[in-house]
Amino acid sequence: MNVEVRAMKTPAEQALSAAYEGARATLPGKGAIAALREGAFKQFETRGLPHRRVEEWKYTDLRALMRDAYPIAPPPDAAAKSRVKTAGNILAGVDSRRLVFVDGAFAPELSDLAPETGLAIGSMAEALAKGDAQVAKHVGKTFETDDAAVALNTALMGDGAVINIAKGADLKRPIHLVFAAGSDKPSSVFVRSLVVVGDGAKATIVEDHDSGAAQMNVALELVVGDKAQVDYFKITRARALHVASLLASIGAKATFNAFGFTSDANVMRNQNFIRFAGEGTHAGIRGVSLLRGKEHADTTLLIEHAAGGCESREQFKSVLDDSAHGVFQGKIVVKPHAQKTDAKMMTRALLLSDEAEADNKPELEIFADDVVCGHGATTSAPDEGLKFYLMSRGIPEKEAEALLIQAFVDETIEEIAHEGIRDALKFAALRWLGTHP
Amino acid sequence: MSKLLEVKNLHVEIDGKKILNGLDLMVEKGQVAAIMGPNGSGKSTLAYVLAGKADYKVTEGDVTLDGESILEMSPDERAAKGVFLAFQYPVEVPGVATMTFLRTALNAQRKTRGEAEVSTPEFMKLVRDTASHLGISQDMLRRAVNVGFSGGEKKRNEILQMAVLQPRLAVLDETDSGLDIDALKIVADGVNALRSPERATVVITHYQRLLNYIVPDVVHVMAKGKVVKSGGKELALELEAKGYAQYAGEAA
C-alpha cells in the first residue's frame, strides 16, 4: 500500500499532472530537454503548487488561488490570431520591433522580422524540437532554483521567444515581445523565452503581457554578457492568473535595468531571480503596480550578488485602491566573496482606501564584510499636507490626489532611460488614474 | 474703500485646544494689513483658517469675502475666489514640476470661475517673465516643486505662484523668516507689484524688518488669539522698540 508523504493533490494539481502525462510525448524537445522536463515535473509532483506555508509564497497562495487547472491552449487558429490585433498598444507610440505570441505560440506572420545585423529571432518550440545548441546550453541553467512555479514551467514549456544578440551589436529599436490571448475558452499557457545578449551589446527588451490566457505561467531566461547594456521591461495587464519568472544572469561591468509595470491584473506574481555573476556591474531594478478592485500583485525579488563591486538599486512602488492587495518581497543576498557590494532597496505603497492591503518584506542576507547595503519600506495614505498645499492653489481634491499619485509613480518611471517607453508608461499610469484619455 | 475680508468673532480650536478666541479683523480693498504678534498668538492659525486647512475647527464666528461666508468652502474653492496663502513652510512636492503645478492650478481656478484656460505660449511667457523678476531660474521651473530648493528659493517660489495666480486676497505667513536681505527685497518687490485698488494683502510677521519693504496701511497686533490693538505703520516701529510684553495680559 502506498504511503502518502504529503497532503492529497488538489484538483488543479491533478489536472496539471494529467496535462503533463498527456502532453509528454508531443512537447517539443528530446534527449536532454526531455530529461530536464521530467526532472522538473518530478520536482513539481513532490512539492505541488506553492502555498502559504512556503515562505516565498506566503502572500500568494497559488494552491488556494487555483481551484482548477485549465486545459493547455491549442495552437492558435485564424480566429485566435485575429483577436490580438490591438494587443501591446501600450507602446503604440514607440518605434519598436513587434514580435507577437498568441496563446504563447510565436506568430511570425504578425511579427516584424525585418533583418538586422547582430540579431537572431526564433521560436522556442522550434529550437527545442530541433535541439538548438544555444537553447540546450542555457535553458534551465541561467538561474537554477527549486521554485515550484519555475519547475512547472520547465516541465510544460511550449513556445516563446529565442532572441540572440551578437557581441557588440547595438539594436536600433526596442524588441517588443507581445504576449496576447487568442483562445476564447479558458485555457492555460506555459511560455518559455530565452534572451542572450552578447558581450558589449546594447538592447532594450520589452516583455508585454496584454491580457492573456486564463492561466499563464511564463518564464524568461536572460543572459547578459560582460559590458553589455540591457534595459528589460515587463508590462503586465492581464485579466488572468499570471505567474511570471525572470531568471537572469548578468556579466561583469554590465549595465542592467529592469522595470516592471503592472495594472489591470487579476492575480499576478512576478518573481525575479537575478544574479550578478561578474564584477563592476550597475543595475537598477524597479517597478510600479497600480491596483484596484480585488486585484492582487506580488513582486518577489531574489537578487544575488555573487561577484564583488556591483551596485544595485531596487525601487518598487504600488498604488492600491479598493480592496487591492500588493505584495513586495525583496531579498538581497551578498555572497561571501562579493566585497564592495553596494545595494539599496526601497519599497513604497500608497493606500487609497482603508480596505487595501500592502505587504512589504525586504530582506538582506550578507555574507561579506565590506559592503554597503540598505533597505526601507513605507506604507501610507496620500499626504494630507501636500494635498492641502495643492488645493490651496485652486486644484480640486480629486485632481490634487491624482497629481500626487502620478508624482509618486512618476518618480520611479522617470528612471527609465528610453524616452518613448518612459512616456508610454507615464500615459498608461495617467489612463489608470482617469486623467488621460 | 470697501471691505474685502471680514473676520467676525472667530473661535478656532485644534485637537480640542483653543487657539483663536473671538478674533475680529477687517481688511479693505487696496489695503496692505500687517499682523504682528508674539509666538503662539494664533497668527499662523488665522492664515490656515483663511485658506481652509481641515485640521482646524471653527466653533464660532464667521469669515466673509466680499460679504460671502467662505467657511463652508473647500480650499480650492476659496483659491478660485481669490484667496492665496504664502506658506511659512512651503512643502516639497516630489515629482510635480513647478511649471505643471502652476498651469494645473491656474487652469483649475479659471475653470471653477467659468473662464477659458490660458494658452500654453501665453502661460509660458507669463511664468518666465515673472520668474526672471524674482530671480527664479528656468531650471528651477523644470524641477519638482520646492524639492531641493533652499529656504529662500522656496519663499520666492511662493511669491511666483502668487504673481501667476493673481489673488485678490494674499496672506503671507512669515514669508520673511529665513530670508537674507537681498531675498527679502526680491520678495517685497513681488508683493508690491501686486498692489492694486482691487486687491488686499495680509502680511503676517514677527519682525518689523519686512515692513520697511512692504509698507503697510494698517498694523494689527495679535495676542492670545485675538486682535488687541490696531494702528498705522508706526505701530510696527513701536513694537520693535518695546516688544510684545505689554500685550501679554490684554487678551486674558
Short description:
The complex is a heterodimer of chains A (437) and B (252). Chain A is built from ten helices and 19 strands.
Q: Report how far apart the termini of chain A are.
A: 64 Å
Summing up helix and strand content along with how strands pair, one would put the structural category of chain B as alpha/beta
| End-to-end separation of chain B | 33 Å
Biggest pleated sheet of chain A: 10 strands, mixed
Based on CA inertia axes, which overall geometry of chain A fits? Answer: globular
How many strands appear in the DSSP assignment of chain B?
A: 12
Segments of chain B where pLDDT lies below 50 for 5+ residues? none
What is the residue-mean pLDDT of chain A, rounded to a whole number? 95
Kindly report the spatial arrangement of strands forming the biggest sheet of chain A: 2-1-5-7-9-11-13-15-17-19
Quaternary state reads: heterodimer
Biggest interface and its residues per chain? A-B, 24 and 29 residues
Counting DSSP H or I runs of 4 or more residues, the number of helices of chain A is 10
State the share of residues found in helices of chain A, binned by percent: 10-25%
Percent of residues of chain B in helical segments? 25-40%
Low-confidence parts of chain A: none
